[in-house]
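Morning run. Coffee first, then this:
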Amino acid sequence: MEEVLSGIDAVQIHYHRHFFEIEDPFGSNSTEERWEAVYGESSTAVGGGPRLAPTSIIDGERMHIGSSPKGESLIDDYTWSMAVGSTAWFVGGAIEFGVSFEAEAATFSWSLDDLVFSCADDCPEQQTTAWLMFVEDSAHFSEGSNNLEDYLHVLHEAIALDSDSGSLSVDVPTAWDGDDMKAILLVDWKIVHDEARNPNPLPAAGLSTLLSLLAAVPVARHLRED
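And here it is:
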């Protein structure tokens, strides 16, 4: 994946196992719960389990499970998937995301009110869910079983936000090392099935209708300087 993303302005978020995990120090209950809630059903349908490693999700839509390519190589698979791009129904607008600091706490504010959808008439019901996610750019752990030592884009916490706009004061998770923690506002978007519009639906929608938007701000350095 790193080869495919070289030179591309892409945000990466790496989940780490936490449930029943004794070797990996990263991850948390909240990150596992988000993964299973968002991707678990599709992962089970495709691969037979909700938490299969390695799994890559591109644009929140396309799931790649395992290390065996479907094409000539994994690089080809990922390159094709990246080229598809997001199919979200957004034609304009912006996500508002900011943070203010006081002592050891951070207050985050967000708004999705300015997002503009491309559908104008007879639109299906659309549902957005905002998440506040804390990601460390790089964490050094020499005892890792895969011998990577330096782990990138480590997701530490995932907090579901209960509205499309608002503010929330939270304690920023402590970085494993360094001061490279950042907060990411991730927006899941999906179409809610309407039986009146389609009385004979296909099986439950999977990743093809679950899309994500991102915005990010650094947080660790601000807290230390204050």
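The chain has two domains: 2-84, 90-225. Good start to the day.
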